[in-house]
Predict the structure.
Amino acid sequence: MSKTSDSFETYYKFNKHNENIPIIFIHGIGLNHEIWDQQINYFKNYNTIVYDLIGHGKTPFNNKQIAMKDFSKQLLKLVDGLKINKFHLVGFSLGSLIARDFASSFSNRLSSLVLFGTVYKRSEDEKRQIINRYETMKLKKDNTKVKAVQRWFSEKFLKENPMIYKKIYSILEKTNQETWLKVYKFFVEHQDDDIKIKQITAKTLIITGEEDIGSKPRMSEEICKLIKGSLCKIIKSGRHLCNIECAENFNLTIREFIDNGNDA
């Protein structure tokens, strides 16, 4: 693990094998770079970068508040510092919103873009649900982290993979509560900007789990209509973290998309 020298002090891991275009993965709220372990192993012959978002993992939170421009600037500082001009970008959940924002301004830097588990135009009921989760988190109830993991995976998968449950729950436990609330509030209040989304010109794949209750297939399909030439893929039986639960299907989908007409 390395650390950037800029004001963000971003912790990252760069598995570099050659001079080919790297794949950069962005995690979601309350998590860290470790959620991509199965992808890093699968793409072991590719150049890959994972990093911890502001206030997550080993990257500090140095501001009183957080805005999208901070997350996008963090990514820009990371790639510029590593002298990476072009890369493949995969963003998950909050990470997909960051990837969208970055791509709307810097599509020329992207060889491809994957928006995974993204949200778009929440219904009034969906807004109420996420606001309720935020209010519950503010009460510091221990079961909020348990419920999060249960939303992100199927019951059957968690029963058969107790170590995955333990790993993800442990990551959530280590995330600073105050920071998590600030970032979650930002996520709750996020407003979709169709104009910015339509500015994305990078080759784009939108992907989500068939059974994801927060980032529903409908959302991915609607965003797909806004980004010219984009593709949409729904992972069968997948939930929010289907990159872990449905890793084989997910990894193959990403690899085929990245390799098609790109320099891996």
About this structure: The first strand starts at residue 2 and ends at 3. Strands lie at 2-3, 11-15, 23-26, 48-51, 87-92, 110-116, 204-209, 231-235. The domain at 2-259 is CATH 3.40.50.1820 (Rossmann fold). The longest helix spans residues 124-138.
